[in-house]
């Protein structure tokens, strides 16, 4: 990896840049890609600026918030569902941060700050899904044996441990990364997070589900006191061929259960992986003055804590599908211009004031 300057000085990765100081400081520039879009960032003392950005980033923020939310949920607090919602939110935020810092390191190891300022959710989901599908074409500056979660797990796992433990830790981290990627790419979980984040468009509370031939003989399938109930907008399918371009939607009621312990452990896990990524990124900058602490998963029981959701069935849809052929042509041909010409009038009086 090289960091170039306009004066054609070349700095090898692993060494802090030194400037030839004449009468003015030289500008540095660094090319990078976000997914496949190409960019160049220009700044004085570019690597040092990026190194400071990484040093000031605190991965433990996420685990700290998660830990205290879980403590409140375990207490006698009367509004536990609010802390459960914050726990669900901080897990989603940590998950995005982890994947963002990971791909910033892989695509722009000497200018993660610029990468993180430009990327979009669409970019990040595309990169994660590309690794899941094992695509070979990606703009990675870091050389990996293959574009797989195993290669990434190997890269971010510390090597200063026993060889057998090292291999086993990589095996576990590969499974963990695949599980986290599945959560990040889940459309329903993404929608739920956005509904909480933007306007709190959810009703809090979990659900329970059981199956049996009588009400006295039911076998429980899943239950939680915590979760969300949200309205999901779906495109109506099977529309008549000549009306394919008409935008028509329907609602679907969706229920999701949360396991607070699971969310807390997952957030702690993501914070630990983020710490590895941050520290490895600083090492790539040649930061030899700091003592980095690395995390690895060295126990199968520990891994199970990160992977097992104890709420059982955690997702339920209760609405029926709507087929486009069931909808009359009058609905498809509705005149929106005429609809908005006819105004609603609301006259306030004292009866509306309490």
Description:
With about 350 residues, the chain is α+β, with helices and mostly antiparallel strands. The protein has one domain (about 1-350). About 45% of the residues lie in helices and about 15% in strands. The protein is built from 12 helices and 10 strands. The protein has helices at about 45-55, 60-75, 80-105, 110-120, 120-130, 150-155, 165-185, 185-195, 260-285, 300-305, 330, 335-340, and strands at about 1-5, 10, 25-35, 35-45, 205, 210-215, 215-225, 225-235, 250-255, 315. The strands form 3 sheets. A 4-stranded antiparallel β-sheet has the order 2-1-3-4. It has a 4-stranded antiparallel β-sheet with strand order 5-8-9-10. A hairpin with a 2-residue loop joins strand 6 and strand 7 (about 215-225). Helix 2 (about 60-75) packs antiparallel against helix 9, helix 5 crosses helix 7 and helix 6 (about 150-155) crosses helix 7. Residues about 1-25 have low confidence and may be disordered.
Features:
alpha+beta; 4-stranded antiparallel β-sheet; globular; 354 residues
């Amino acid at each position: 990896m090289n960091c170039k300057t306009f004066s054609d000085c070349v700095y090898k990765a692993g060494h802090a840049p030194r400037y030839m100081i004449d009468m003015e400081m030289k500008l540095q520039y660094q090319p990078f890609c976000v997914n496949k879009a190409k960019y160049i960032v220009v700044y004085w003392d570019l690597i040092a600026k990026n190194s400071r950005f990484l040093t000031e980033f605190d991965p433990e923020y996420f685990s700290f918030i998660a830990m205290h939310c879980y403590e409140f949920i375990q207490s006698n607090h009367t509004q536990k569902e609010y802390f459960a919602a914050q726990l669900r939110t901080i897990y989603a935020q940590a998950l995005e941060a982890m994947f963002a810092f990971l791909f910033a390191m892989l695509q722009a190891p000497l200018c993660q700050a610029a990468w993180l300022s430009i990327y979009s959710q669409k970019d990040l989901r595309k990169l994660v899904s590309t690794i899941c599908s094992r695509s070979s074409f990606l703009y990675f500056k870091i050389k990996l044996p293959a574009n797989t979660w195993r290669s990434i797990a190997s890269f971010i796992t510390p090597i200063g441990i026993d060889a057998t433990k090292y291999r086993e830790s990589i095996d576990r981290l590969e499974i963990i990364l695949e599980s986290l990627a599945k959560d990040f790419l889940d459309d329903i979980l993404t929608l739920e997070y956005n509904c909480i984040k933007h306007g709190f468009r959810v009703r809090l509370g979990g659900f329970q589900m059981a199956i049996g031939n009588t009400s006295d003989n039911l076998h429980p399938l899943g239950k939680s006191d915590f979760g969300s109930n949200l309205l999901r907008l779906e495109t109506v399918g099977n529309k008549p061929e000549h009306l394919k371009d008409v935008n028509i939607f329907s609602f679907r009621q969706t229920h999701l259960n949360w396991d607070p312990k699971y969310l807390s452990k997952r957030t702690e896990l993501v914070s630990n992986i983020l710490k590895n990524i941050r520290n490895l990124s600083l090492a790539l900058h040649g930061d030899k003055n700091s003592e980095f602490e690395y995390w690895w998963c060295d126990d199968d029981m520990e891994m199970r804590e990160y992977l097992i959701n104890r709420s059982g069935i955690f997702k339920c849809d209760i609405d029926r599908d709507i087929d486009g052929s069931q909808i009359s042509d009058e609905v498809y041909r509705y005149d929106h211009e005429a609809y908005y010409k006819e105004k609603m009038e609301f006259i306030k009086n004292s009866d509306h004031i309490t």
